[in-house]
Amino acid sequence: MSGVAVHRVVEGRGDGPVVVFSNSIGSDHRMWNPQVAPLVERGYRVVRYDTRGHGASPVPDGPYDLADLGGDVLALLDDLGVERAHLVGLSLGGMTGMWLGVHAAERLRSLTLCCTSAKLGPPQMWADRAKLVRSEGTGAVAEAGVGRWVTPAYAQSHPDEMAFLRGMMTDCPDEGYAACCGVIERMDQLADLPKITTPTLVISGADDPATPPDSHGRLIAEGIPGARFEVVASAAHLGNYEQPAEFTRLILEQITEAV
User: Which domains does the chain have, with CATH numbers?
Assistant: First the structure.
């Protein structure tokens, strides 16, 4: 396990409880924009970072695995002098959160796992996507990717937000995206879920085509002892962005209860 110094944005009270937000594949820390102000207003120290290979973070040579992504979070906490934090992750960020729950529970106050999966196949799909991005760039997958992030109704009524989301994906470094495809291709955390003892909330988007609630979120919640499961209506894969008020309410409820 190796840790790289990921790009981070820290906002809020320096002495407040720390909430770390971990992004999805193809996005960066800006996907959590809707959650920042509500948490800062309530006294939290909000730490958003770009997963390695994404945004302004380094793009080390691959392959990567979940231990690398989790190690980056631990290195981030160490660098910030944070002993324990609430971790909120979506998709790839949620996968990283599950790894931390298994291997570094002593660093966590709570887990909020959004629109994610413990095993997201088929593996060949991820291998093919990585090959496409390496040959043609992230622009080749941006339209389809953002189409999974939000519902058609949201896309039609929010053209400016769609342009922002597409730009975020096309700006993602090609090799970073492809190497993280490899992480998901090889991931299987189903058997490890019962090892997670951190208070956990699992949130799914009712209309998420990438990680449908019943076949992914519900399985995670059933596998983690005591986990709570919530489904948010009219939300696809980037549910926190499409339905910010409800996702933020649930996140705040979780981090307030898990002290």
Answer: 8-118+188-257 (3.40.50.1820)
